[in-house]
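batch_manifest entry 22 of 60
target: Peptidase S41
source organism: Myroides marinus
requested by: lab member K.T.
priority: normal
notes from requester: please return tokens only, no post-processing; we will run our own comparison against the previous entry in this batch. if the run fails, retry once and flag.
--- input ---
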Amino acid sequence: MRKIFWPLIVSISLALGILLGGFIVSASYRGKTGLYTNHNKLKLNRLIDFIEQEYVDNVDTDSIVDRTVTTILEQLDPHSIYIAKNELQSVTESMQGSFVGIGINYYYYKDSVAVIKDIKAGPSFKAGIEPGDRILAADGHKLSGKEITSDTIAKYLRGAEGTDVVLDVYRKTTDQHLKITVNRQPIPIKSVDIAFKMSDGRGYIKLNRFSSTTYEEFKEALDKLIKQDISSLVLDLRDNGGGYMEQAIKMLDDLLEKGQVIVKTVNKGGKSTVMKSKGTGLFTEKPLYVLINENSASASEIIAGAIQDNDRGTIVGRRSFGKGLVQRELMLGDGSAIRLTTARYYTPSGRSIQKSYKMGIEEYNNDFRSRYTHGELYAADSIKVADSLQYKTLKGRTVYGGGGIVPDMFVSIGNKHGDDTIVLLMKSGVVSYFVFQELDKQRAMFNKFSKEEVIEYVMSNDKVFKAYVKHLEGNKLFFKLDKRKEIVKRFLVGEFLSQLFSEEEYYTWMLEYDPMIKKIDSK
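--- output ---
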């Protein structure tokens, strides 16, 4: 929900030299004299020099270099990527798990910064910023009007740790103009969305990424749940695209017995490294369920593969993404970086779960459409597996390689074709935006509602449902929702609970109807 945005290469020849000379030479140099001549590198350097010096028009050679680097990497595999210097900060902060700011979730709503909610116990919360407040200026710098950009907002709301920013705030609920001073502090970007004990006694942990703080957050959450004497653990890795492998390995140390294989990596030279569990014994005996879907990738698949191959728990959901490549981040010297694939990884049974990318990146990225076309999202027997890629788990069960982790317990994305589209719609930002808009109209009323009253308000009649359909149509989005009214209403209730109360209230409500949780219950 939070929206965060960040905004010359001094010499293009130098940049290409760093890329094609510095990195590739260090990676592939085989000479004995210490001298290496790469004619292709020189050719590219000269081309950029000629364009800068001789071309008839002025050309943005920065963008040429960016496109050249991207094109080179695209010839390798779908996961070797270029990160431009203006994007690197946001990527780095996401993986580091924090940034310095004032601690709000906001929309740029009707030409002003509108606070959705502030982060609990964060700087804005402590300073008295409230949901629905409009931030009109920061230290006298205007933050409203059509000319304001996301970069401008970030520039003035963020800053050095411990510095103050004076905000001009309009509070719609009381029709007040206020000046509020907020002290900027590190704001965590959490890996663990929520961790709580469900009503049936199970523990539930929802993990959205694998950043540098993930294991620390996971262990804290698991410790809390163990103290509450949970009967089993549900680890939700749905839509988790991965991140740092070592964080997944640390988590598996707590879930597997000592000495059990976690993962094996093999690099270009054929050197293999086998990681085994250290066996910390934190949660190794009670039932474990790992939830995955078509967007669970990379480190998520390392966890699912290790749990499945060691027969430690049950994998529930739909076939995972299928990313079995390991990347290393390398700086290019000008503030930009590349993530280069340097190894493949294999699950404990020896499976590579990397799906094929021989047909090109476009086809690779359209895999979801292919799964939909073949009915895989709706029926387990539509999952394509290769009999030639059979492997055995620790206890002798058959599992398959060649394109993701196939779950032990399959759960359809919906009861009928088209449900997937509605689910994706209801998980999109359009729902959050609509709910904020509805709250903004009558915030005083909603602030008096209990959780039960919110549920009643949305579910008991079609008033909110019809307003949502009208909102979609106003944005040129036309869906036939009448036959899926109950699904839509449940998601709307969840978003109201999230914005009015907490993420725990959201998950408590949504998990009650979650088909994967219901599948576990039926076991």
